[in-house]
UniProtKB/TrEMBL annotation:
It comes from the Bacteria. Pfam families: STAS_2. It comes from Streptomyces bungoensis. Gene3D superfamilies: STAS domain (3.30.750.24). Residues 1-107 form the STAS domain. This is Anti-sigma factor antagonist.
Length: 107
């Protein structure tokens, strides 16, 4: 897993899972704490995430809210869009362009 960017936009790539959760959490919390306005997470380079990785995203979302910021997901890969819909988190998280639920392939 890698995260590159600054306090306004981060690109998250690789696997966001139990192995990378601590590093990802630190990077996201630092970005939230140091910036103002929306924090955009570009997920186009993310290969996969598990429940722990999703928990890191939700933790960053809550922390951003407490800091008066908004976490915005950009370019969410289709397989991750399905997970957000299945967990109904697409209703809570800000997703740039939204998720076209009806266009997602059924699994």
């Amino acid at each position: 897993m890698y995260i590159r960017g600054d306090h306004a936009e981060l690109v998250v790539g690789g696997r966001l899972d139990v192995r990378s959760a601590a590093d990802a959490r630190t990077a996201l919390h630092t970005a939230v704490d140091r910036g103002v306005g929306d924090l955009v997470l570009d997920l186009s380079e993310l290969d996969s995430w598990d429940a722990t990785g999703l928990g890191v995203i939700m933790g960053a979302h809550r922390r951003a809210g407490r800091c008066g910021r908004r976490l915005v997901l950009r370019r969410v890969p289709p397989q991750m869009q399905r997970l957000l819909v299945a967990t109904r988190l697409h209703r809570i998280l800000a997703i740039e362009g939204g998720i076209g639920v009806e266009s997602l392939p059924r699994v």
